[in-house]
Design goal:
Blueprint lengths: L5 H12 L8 E5 L4 H17 L2 E8 L6 H14 L3 E6 L8 H20 L3 E3 L4 H14 L3 H4 L5 E3 L4 E3 L7 H10 L16 H16 L3 H30 E2 L2 E3 H4 L4 H16 L8 H12 L4 E6 L3 E6 L2 E6 L8 E4 L2 E3 L5 E4 L10 E4 L8 E4 L6 E2 L8 E2 H7 L4 H4 L4 E3 L5 E4 L3 E2 L12 E5 L1
Parallel strand pairs: 1-2, 1-4, 2-3, 4-6
Antiparallel strand pairs: 5-6, 7-8, 8-11, 9-10, 10-11, 12-16, 13-14, 14-22, 15-22, 16-19, 17-18, 19-20, 20-21
Helix pairs in contact: 1-2, 2-7, 5-8, 5-9, 9-11, 11-12
Length: 448
């Protein structure tokens, strides 16, 4: 019998006694080859001894690291050795969306296809207690919905199948100890050490500080997560009754919406966003909810705003819809109020202050331009009066000079005023209207 740490007994007991597993049934488990997923895979091997489970290992090659091919071979050989069905998918290419979100979307789409192929009811994932802490803290910093602040759940009913996370109340250290004691091999993803990724910074510098205060703090985060989910479920049950008459067939009745208290209005907005983005709530912040709220309550009859992943909110008189937009010829035109999420995955925000002096920040004097500002794609003949140069220069020539890839040019934002005069090419060039920190200005724009 393979030895187990006490911390893993709870996870194994959950699999054996809290999941309605039928004798001999097939389960899917996501396995990267790292310490977490290899730990989970071995817990399922333990469960197989009693339940004769058929285990399908789902391995995804994200195709961004040279080690990925070697990791595929490692996982495949381990599965052959342990009589586990090995399934593999390689992501051949990515679009212009946020990489992590697109990779996650493709990954779960693949898992869903395996669920259908094997007529499975359960997908096991290796997210653990440290992952939950990181997710909650990141969403607090970014801003999110009540559901988003709770992180992720141990059990998620996806309709056709259920996602299970047995390691949610186990720490990374406990996983390493389990792997070491039971001589479970695993591979190490070196990109997890790079500070360029937000989650890595939280993992390396922030979460350890919480653990210094209390080594079992992950349990408190798990309790916090469950409490928020319970409150969210209750509020949702109240809001759902109101939604049935306010948000009918995915069309918001603004007149009925305005009759509700602000807290109910914001929960209705969160309800809409949660149902559109489902398990991709990391993309949504409280700024997006506020942006949608401002659109709904605006006195203007016709407005449109862009949200992450090609989603748009369109207001027409007394109605508002939030839908996925297919850009015609990659063209878009957004009125900039305080914040805009753009189709290229970037943001432009009106900020109160900034010490940055690069092309990522533009300072303007509103008396010299015609408001409101607009963000759009390039048009034939577009020119900009580049700061520090005499005359003007074509946007296309600037793209060529800066060696901007053709695929990026199609969605690159161009900031213009209400007369269609180009005043900023975010991240690349600023116009003569840009001000230094010592000059007079009352608008600061940040591109990130």
């Amino acid at each position: 019998m393979v030895g187990r740490e006490c911390s893993m007994d709870k996870s194994l007991n959950f699999i054996m006694h809290n999941v309605d597993l039928r004798y001999g049934e097939t389960v899917i488990v996501g396995v990267s080859g790292g310490p977490d997923s290899m730990c989970l895979l071995n817990l399922l091997i333990e469960a197989r001894k009693a339940l004769d489970l058929k285990i399908v290992c789902a391995h995804v090659n994200h195709n961004v690291r040279k080690e990925s091919s070697e990791e595929k071979i490692f996982v495949e050989k381990y599965c052959q050795k342990n009589n586990i069905i090995f399934e593999y998918m390689k992501i051949e290419e990515y679009g212009d969306d946020n990489f992590h979100n697109e990779a996650r979307s493709k990954r779960y789409s693949y898992f869903g296809s395996l669920i259908k192929k094997y007529h499975a009811r359960y997908l096991f994932m290796a997210h653990h207690g440290d992952d939950l802490m990181e997710t909650i803290l990141m969403r607090i910093v970014r801003g999110s919905t009540l559901k988003g602040y709770s992180g992720f759940s141990k059990v998620v009913n996806m309709g056709e199948y259920v996602i299970l996370r047995p390691l949610i109340d186990v720490t990374k250290e406990e996983i390493y100890n389990y792997d070491k004691k039971n001589k479970i091999p695993f591979v190490t993803d070196k990109s997890n050490e790079k500070d360029v990724y937000t989650r890595n910074r939280f993992r390396k510098y922030i979460v350890p500080q919480f653990k210094k205060e209390d080594p079992n703090v992950h349990q408190k985060f798990y309790k916090f997560s469950k409490t928020l989910q319970e409150y969210n479920d209750y509020i949702d049950s109240v809001v759902l009754k109101k939604v049935k008459k306010i948000y009918v067939q995915k069309v918001l009745n603004i007149e009925e919406f305005l009759k509700e208290k602000h807290i109910i209005q914001m929960k209705i907005i969160n309800y809409i966003l949660e149902h559109i983005y489902e398990d991709d709530l990391m993309l949504i912040t409280d700024k997006h909810a506020e942006l949608l709220y401002n659109l709904i309550v605006s006195k203007r009859s016709n407005l449109k705003i862009h949200l992450p992943n090609g989603v748009v909110a369109i207001k027409e008189y007394n109605t508002c819809i939030v839908v996925k937009e297919e850009l015609k010829n990659n063209e878009y035109n957004v009125e900039l109020n305080e914040f805009a999420n753009l189709p290229n995955g970037k943001n432009i925000e009106v900020v109160k202050k900034s010490t940055i002096v690069s092309n990522a920040v533009c300072r303007l004097d509103s008396s010299e331009i015609k408001l409101p500002l607009h963000i759009r794609t390039r048009k034939a003949g577009d020119k900009i009066s580049v700061k520090g140069m005499l005359g003007s220069k074509k946007i296309n020539d600037i793209f060529i000079d800066e060696k901007i890839p053709m695929s990026d040019r199609e969605l690159w934002p161009v900031v213009v005023d209400d007369t269609n005069m180009v005043i900023w090419l975010p991240g690349i060039k600023k116009s003569k209207f840009d001000k230094t920190k010592d000059e007079k200005y009352d608008i600061i724009l940040k591109y990130y």
